[in-house]
DNA sequence: GAGTGGTCTAGACCACAAT
DNA sequence: TTGTGGTCTAGACCACTCC
């Protein structure tokens, strides 16, 4: 049986009182000295609990002024998680599969700045229960990832291969709305101009471009959802090993 | 002059070695005892630095096995920040303004479940340098926020008013692609069916629905961008007070 | 000046997992 | 069994900032 550490119990207690509305934004939380007495523990233990809450943005601590429940951000931005395609499909209880439609090794063009001199261009269709789910067009820099030239992208989709062989250190995502153009519409079984969600993703490894991918989702069939409270952010990226 | 705490200096040192690629995923980081010797400090100080890195997912700590540099997530999900409209416009150096197009107080319909018995329906056009930027349709529950009935939404846009008067404790966002329908297209100055990014946002306060809003952005003019490394998440929500 | 949090120490015992 | 991290103590000094 795993007992809950005291510092986490203290933090949870306070978090619950904030979440329930018992302690409203601006409410002054008991001082460390008072919490020491309440929980009968050393100051470091209380301090750790409060530091954790502060790091998560639930409370604001200021010397002399004490610790108060934080106000929600006034200009509230929010976060949406972009799921991995395969996880997304399997998470819906559907069977994931993919088809490699195109594979070309070629020099990079002027508008593909930063992708290195030679690259692979791929087109992959991702399917959920054998129905088209996403069309992905992807470039992989052979300067940064020369091994990609000999990878079998019919076996594993390029996204998964890259994560296993070329973990990124930096990424950029862009979400926009586009109309399905001729070829994309055909591949996805849509009529021309159907609104689609376009997810553009670029990654780098130590400053060198690894890949640049565009994924097009039928607008009606796919959307990005995020639900959270200020208490628990969606930043729960599971890390292996 | 503010000196950097030692625990943060230790964490930064290690972070830098990970980011630079000097310490690759799987690399075993010196033990706490070794770091104590290296920095000439107590174990608690080293421990705090490592605990911080662990909480941020940069390293994985296991008893007996030691601390190793984390592998990037295999099924990598990522996050995109949804900015506040006004900040977004002003951040681009444009002048923000807004027009209230519609304001109705009415009973809620069956498909507006959870919004309370009476609500306000609003339609607001957000402009950047006097050009249409977003059309927003919004419901506000008068059960949860009765003060909204007397608020002047021509002065402050409803989103800002709500954040000031009814901070949420829970939120849900949904991003999808839609074609501009007749009225939306007219308001935004688009032709019918133009692909648009639709941002749906619902918020709750202690379990009670506060608001439900749909914002439609011209697909060509707007997109969501997020750039980050695993080291520094985009989770940089500024908190007031 | 005094109250509050921020950091740090030099120990201690325990939990867990690899051997 | 033993090495490693996880937690905790009982102090200490300092940095801020409100009064």
UniProtKB/TrEMBL annotation, chains A, B:
Keywords for this entry?
A: DNA-binding, Transcription, Transcription regulation
**Name assigned to this protein:** UTRA domain-containing protein
Q: Identify the Gene3D superfamilies for this entry.
A: Chorismate lyase-like, Winged helix-like DNA-binding domain superfamily/Winged helix DNA-binding domain
Tell me where in this chain the HTH gntR-type domain is found.
4-72
Taxonomic lineage? Bacteria, Pseudomonadati, Pseudomonadota, Alphaproteobacteria, Caulobacterales
- Specify the domain of life of the species encoding this protein: Bacteria
Provenance organism: Brevundimonas nasdae
SMART domains per UniProt:
HTH_GNTR, UTRA
